[in-house]
Amino acid sequence: MAGFTNYGENLVINEVLRSRQLYVGLMKANPEEAGNSSSEVNAISYERQPIQYIEPKLGETYNHQDIQFPTATEDWGWITHIAIFDSKENGNMILFSALDFKKEIRAADIYKIPRAYLIFSID
Prior knowledge:
By secondary structure, the protein is mostly beta strands. It has one domain (6-121). It is built from 1 helix and 8 strands, in the order αββββββββ. It has one helix at residues 6-18, and strands spanning 22-27, 49-51, 60-62, 67-68, 77-85, 93-105, 112-113, 119-121.
């Protein structure tokens, strides 16, 4: 097949990203296509955060609101990638991406992903 129509693009986005609760995880290395979550932050104060995407338009969507992680009570290390999971704990990695810039999270830091930063598109 040659490609998706605009309707088809929106249909896929709605089914994959909007039909169930998804969670954002912070990664310290590239998880690669196998979805290796062993590089996810592992700290007492860390937990994945829920994400909601807006209704897609022309095959594109983004996070509806800011996503704020808990205050780090210990150093989390350098965050280089984010991943989207289908569960708050364990579960399956669905998507991943390198960040535009890596960020070191130290004790007392709060990591925040701004609204409309996590853009997903099909073209």
